[in-house]
Structures are given as structure tokens and as C-alpha cells.
Write a structure and sequence with these properties.
The complex is a heterodimer. Helices cover 32% and strands 21% of the residues of chain A. Chain A is globular. By secondary structure, chain A is α/β, with parallel strands linked by helices. Chain A has a 5-stranded parallel sheet, sandwiched between helices. Chain B is α+β, with helices and mostly antiparallel strands. Chain B folds into 2 domains: 75 residues, Ubiquitin-like (UB roll) (Roll), CATH 3.10.20; 132 residues, Alpha-Beta Plaits (2-Layer Sandwich). Helix content of chain B is 24%, strand content 16%. Chain B is built from 6 helices and 10 strands, in the order E-E-H-E-E-E-H-H-E-E-H-E-E-H-E-H. Chain B has a 5-stranded mixed sheet with strand order 2-1-5-3-4, with helices on one face. Chain B has a 3-stranded antiparallel sheet with strand order 6-7-10. In chain B, strand 6 and strand 7 form a beta hairpin. The longest helix of chain B is centred in the middle third of the chain and has 17 residues. Classes of the chains: A alpha/beta, B alpha+beta. At the A-B interface, helix 4 and helix 7 of A face helix 3 of B. The structure holds iron/sulfur cluster (3 copies) and FE2/S2 (inorganic) cluster (FES).
Chain lengths: 182, 238
């Protein structure tokens, strides 16, 4: 059997879900046995998302143009997309700026009010991705095949979700251990 | 005392006349999810989570405010009911601003609990991201309207058990909001005795003790029932 082509992406999240993934400890050996990591901020150096990925864990909400572009690319090139962690599933903390009405209040607060006198709002269209007006969970933009909530999902929860997938079975997402938010 | 006999999910149940379907189901060991129901205060049927099906009645009814009558045949777990309950919980999450990861009630929240119970792993509805405020004017407690699900448990416990009637529901539709006094800051309402019953009654992290940070809030869920039993049945211990 060919190895499963496996990827992880990090969008608007704190990378905590990826850290929790690394907490899988020795189970990572089993994962490594079963998959080829073809793209990942923590397990690969490849810069462009490849074609024909089997399974991808997507961490983070969609907060800027780069997140959006990458998510669309990931969806197009991936068979089984997992919404990984509360930021991906609910938009979570990154979406708390939605209540402030637009990006201006956040940018001004971060880059002007809290800076010393030299503060300026970063603006360089091809280098710094523009913030989107509204932060969204990923399933509001693309189809998602599995939701894996948690902030972060515990290593045990990640394991219980991934282990069946390695055997090409769908995990049962039920009960406090598997689906509690937060 | 007259007794009504009926069937709930095929189980024969006999209850005192005047008993609600929710209580009858509990007696039969059949769990029905609830949110606005709180033992010890009156029921209002606000959340609709406890909906059940009665044979020969085309409408679903909220079991917390419907009497269990003679010869009723009730179903509590049909596919339709389970789907509606899940939708209700998804709508509650989409309606307010629930960020469990940074909430005082994380791990101790009845909205989280029912989300798990109905099997919700995401919401299909668009989040509203409403602009709501937080009132920290009370010396001991705070209310964060972002997490309020308008169950009115605080309103009822304060009016019926503490008899201070600090809380009320003001405005309509999407603007509906729990207010203290005459829509004043909570800390300015003289009627509040600072008894803390609304803190324990609130199912979510909306009303909390000041100083609690993420996941620190604990709530004494059966306190209100105990107080009402003490008053009405003179059960002084629990
Ligand atoms: S009130 Fe409950 S559901 Fe809402 S954010 Fe807090 S823990 Fe989560
Ligand atoms: S602390 Fe007691 S009196 Fe004050 S609002 Fe809450 S229930 Fe009412
Ligand atoms: S503040 Fe709490 S108890 Fe009061 S209506 Fe809101 S959720 Fe219910
Ligand atoms: S518990 Fe019956 S409607 Fe809320």
C-alpha cells in the first residue's frame, strides 16, 4: 500500500494545535510509518502546497488574504480536509476582532496607540497580506470532511481522530473527550 | 391524589396529576436535554431544547411546561427531535459570542455540556458576532452579555427565591437583553442583596464572580433546588 500523503497547515492560529500534535510523542513514530509528510510548518521544509494530498490538518481561522488563498489551494488539492482546533472550527480568539467592526480599530491599537512615536500601519500589498474585514471559520469558506475541536485539541484527542484515518476508517467524534470546545 | 399513567419511549410511567412531561421522563430514567429549566424555580419554556413528540399531536411540545396527561404516548428521542436539538444549540453558539478557550466557565458550562450531549462538533450557521457589553459595576460579580443565552434563569431565581427582582428582559428580537434594575449598571441597583444566587443559576459564563479567570468559575448547580426544598418541604440538609 502506498503511504498516505499527509500535510498540516497553519493559518490564523497560535500554533498551539501543532504543538499539541507534536505532543503525540511516540505515536509520531506510527504516524511517520504510515504517512509521507508532504507539507507542514513543523515537519517539512517544502514551500509550496503539493498536488494530490490525502489528508490535511488545517489549524487556524481565515483572517487575511494569504490564509484565504492557501485554504482554497489546500481544498483543491486535498482529499480529506480536517478542521483542526477551535480557531479553524469556530474562528475562536482571532474572531474576537469581528465585534470591533472592521480591521481599523485593531490595526490602530496595535501599530499606533501601543507603539512608540515611530509607529506605522504596515502596508505592502505583495509582502504583508491584507487583513480580511471579518475572520471566519474554515467551513464557512470550503467543505470540511472532519471537525476536530479543542483549544488545543489534546494529543489524546488528536490520536483518537488520526489513528482510525491511518487505517482508512472514519473516527467517531462523540462525547466530552472528542468534541468539547475550549 | 389522582394519578396519570402514560408511555414515554415505550416505558409505562405513573405520575401525580400536574407533573410535567420532563419530570415524568426523569422519573422513568429518560434524560431530556434542558437549558432554561432549573429545579427550584418556575418554568418558562424559553430554550425549546426539551421538545418532545406526543402521538396524535402534530406539534412538538416543550416538556418542561407541558403536563403529562392520562394515556399520552410520548417520544423523546426521534431523529427529528435530535436534529432540532442540535440545531438549537448550534444557533445559540452562532447567536452570541462564545469563545470557550478564554471563558471563565470553560469546563463548567451547561451550554458546553448540551453541545456535547447533542453531538455538536461545529455550527452550520453563520456567526452573528453581535456587539454586546460587559457590566463590571457590581463589587462582587460581573455579567458578560456575549455569553448570555437569554434563558432567564437569573431573572427567575432573583424574583422567585431571593425576591429582589433585579433582572428583567428588555428590548426585542435580536436586541433582547438581560437588564438589571431599570436598565442601570448592576452595581447601581439597590435591590440587589449580593446573595449570588444568579451566579449559581446562570448556566453559562455570563454571570460570574469577579476575579475568576479562564475555566475558574465553579457553580453550585443544585443550590437553588435545595433552597426551594428547604422553604417548601422543610428539608434543611442536602
Ligand atoms: S459560556 Fe459556555 S459555551 Fe459560552 S464561551 Fe463560556 S464555556 Fe463556552
Ligand atoms: S446577587 Fe442575588 S439579589 Fe443580586 S441580582 Fe443576583 S440573585 Fe438578585
Ligand atoms: S445571564 Fe445567564 S442566567 Fe441570565 S439569561 Fe443570560 S445565560 Fe441565562
Ligand atoms: S428546558 Fe424546556 S424549553 Fe428550555
Amino acid at each position: 500500500m502506498d503511504k498516505i500523503k499527509f500535510a498540516t497547515v497553519w493559518l490564523a492560529g497560535c500554533s498551539g494545535c501543532h504543538m499539541s500534535f507534536l505532543d503525540l510523542d511516540e505515536f509520531l513514530f506510527d504516524v511517520a510509518e504510515a504517512v509521507d509528510v508532504v507539507y507542514s510548518p513543523v515537519a517539512s521544509d517544502i514551500k509550496h502546497y503539493p498536488d494530490n494530498v490525502d489528508v490535511c490538518l488545517v489549524e487556524g481561522a481565515i483572517a487575511n488574504e494569504e490564509n484565504l488563498e492557501l485554504l482554497l489551494e489546500v481544498r483543491k488539492k486535498t482529499k480529506f480536509l480536517i478542521s483542526f482546533g477551535d480557531c479553524a472550527v469556530t474562528a475562536n480568539v482571532p474572531a474576537m476582532r469581528n465585534m470591533l467592526n472592521g480591521t481599523d480599530p485593531v490595526l490602530k491599537r496595535c501599530y499606533l496607540e501601543l507603539s512608540d512615536d515611530s509607529g506605522q500601519i504596515p502596508k505592502d500589498p505583495h509582502i504583508v497580506p491584507e487583513l480580511l474585514e471579518k475572520v471566519q471559520p474554515i467551513h464557512h469558506i470550503v467543505d470540511v470532511d472532519l471537525f476536530l475541536p479543542g483549544c488545543p485539541p489534546s494529543a489524546q484527542r488528536i490520536k483518537d481522530a488520526i489513528a482510525p484515518l491511518l487505517k482508512e476508517e472514519k473516527p467517531v467524534m462523540k462525547g466530552r473527550e472528542m468534541i468539547k470546545f475550549g | 391524589m389522582s394519578v396519570n399513567t402514560l408511555k414515554i419511549d415505550g416505558i409505562d410511567v405513573a405520575v401525580e396529576a400536574g407533573t410535567t412531561i420532563l419530570k415524568a421522563a426523569k422519573q422513568a430514567g429518560i434524560p431530556i436535554p434542558t437549558l432554561c429549566h432549573l429545579e427550584g424555580v418556575s418554568d418558562v419554556g424559553a430554550c425549546r431544547l426539551c421538545l418532545v413528540e406526543i402521538k396524535s399531536n402534530p406539534n412538538l411540545v416543550p416538556s418542561c411546561v407541558t403536563e403529562a396527561l392520562e394515556a399520552m404516548e410520548i417520544l423523546t428521542q426521534t431523529e427529528q427531535l435530535q436534529e432540532y436539538r442540535k440545531m438549537i444549540v448550534e444557533l445559540l453558539f452562532a447567536e452570541g459570542n462564545h469563545v470557550c478557550a478564554v471563558c471563565v466557565a470553560n469546563n463548567n458550562c451547561q451550554l458546553q455540556d448540551v453541545a456535547i450531549e447533542v453531538g455538536m462538533d461545529h455550527t452550520r450557521f453563520n456567526y452573528r458576532f453581535p456587539q454586546r457589553d460587559v457590566d463590571l459595576s457590581h463589587p462582587l460579580f460581573g455579567i458578560d452579555h456575549n455569553r448570555c443565552i437569554l434563558c432567564t434563569r437569573c431573572v427567575r431565581v432573583c424574583a422567585e427565591i431571593e425576591t429582589a427582582h433585579v433582572w428583567n428582559v428588555a428590548f426585542r428580537g435580536a436586541a433582547a437583553k438581560i437588564v438589571s434594575g431599570l436598565n442601570q449598571p448592576w452595581g447601581d441597583v439597590d435591590a440587589c442583596t449580593s446573595c449570588g444566587k444568579c451566579v449559581d443559576a446562570c448556566p453559562t459564563g455570563s454571570i460570574f464572580r469577579k476575579g475568576d479567570t479562564t475555566a475558574e468559575t465553579t457553580k453550585d448547580r443544585s443550590k437553588v433546588e435545595f433552597l426551594s426544598n428547604a422553604r417548601e418541604k422543610h428539608q434543611w440538609t442536602r
